[in-house]
Design brief:
The chain is mainly α and about 300 residues long. The chain is about 65% helix and about 0% strand.
Length: about 300
């Protein structure tokens, strides 16, 4: 059966007599044939119009590359994430450190500058930080100044509140910081060792519990404004609520770790490291606040 491929359909293709696909052999043209008056004989490439193309020749004044130069180019390392502007783990660590340092500095300012029990400025800073956090969360593009401003305002509010708590329960500030660091370290180890796997089912269940928790806290806040006490932030029930709150903060951390890992694997732009830093800061602030409340309940009237 004759092939429809014009190369494979030629007689004698891939035979010893004809060479590769009929090329590389010298055939005598028949007398009076189409090559009789051809000055190039039967060479089909003798009149190649691209033979004198400037792109087919070595540039003038440039020596050809040696074997050593070609080998060096071949063995050279490929461009890394830093050269291509992609996000790396170092970028996330650096941005997160900057965000947390801003938060701690603002908290220190509130601690030393504000008088005791000054909840007015703390409440205002916390409200503005909440609004900024929502804007940053839903903003398509990453804005490092907004993230640092959020960290400053949130740190200022936390510094003022922590000072009040530390006045009532001396040493509670360092206890809350150490507790937050312990939760972060435990979650990081559990995630890196595969003890915790962020699956779609894991995420759906955690988000559902978080939404229920936030709704319950909002109801408790509204009730407290009208003088009603649901007991969610005191006594044994308050301890359970505090533990659930810390567990949710740890859950948020696992989502942050998975998001960072996925972003790096997919070559996210370097600027996205700021978004990762913002997410980690949110989770750490959540854990710290819940830790502060839980320790205050446990210490009671100490």
């Amino acid at each position: 059966m004759r092939s429809s491929n014009p190369v494979f359909s030629r007689e004698g293709s891939f035979t010893r007599e004809s060479g590769y696909a009929g090329f590389g052999t010298t055939q005598t043209p028949p007398a009076g044939g189409q090559y009789a008056n051809n000055p190039y004989g039967n060479n089909p490439y003798g009149n190649n119009p691209y033979a004198n193309s400037p792109y087919a020749q070595q540039p003038q004044g440039q020596a050809p590359l040696t074997d050593e130069q070609l080998a060096e180019m071949y063995n050279a390392p490929s461009a890394g994430p830093l050269a291509t502007g992609r996000m790396t783990l170092d970028d996330v660590v650096a941005r997160t450190a900057m965000t947390l340092l801003t938060l701690v500095a603002a908290g220190g300012l509130a601690w030393f500058a504000l008088p005791d029990r000054n909840f007015g400025l703390a409440g205002g800073a916390s409200l503005i930080a909440f609004v900024l956090g929502m804007v940053i969360s839903f903003k398509r593009s990453v804005s490092p100044p907004l993230i640092l401003l959020y960290a400053g305002l949130q740190g200022f509010a936390l510094g003022a509140v922590t000072k009040v708590f530390n006045t009532m329960w001396p040493g509670i500030a360092i206890q809350a910081v150490l507790g937050t660091a312990a939760v972060f370290a435990a979650m990081l180890i559990a995630y890196k060792t595969g003890r915790i796997r962020v699956t779609p089912r894991y995420t759906r269940i955690g988000i559902a519990i978080a939404m229920g928790f936030v709704l319950l806290m909002l109801i408790n806040l509204v009730a407290s404004m009208f003088g009603a006490d649901m007991g969610l932030r005191s006594g044994p029930l308050g301890v359970v609520v505090g533990l659930v709150g810390i567990a949710l903060g740890a859950f948020f951390l696992s989502l942050d770790f998975a998001a960072v890992e996925e972003a790096i694997a997919h070559g996210a732009p370097q600027k996205e490291a700021w978004r990762a830093a913002f997410g980690l800061t949110l989770s750490l602030v959540w854990i710290y606040v819940e830790m502060l409340r839980l320790i205050a309940i446990l210490r009671g009237d100490d």
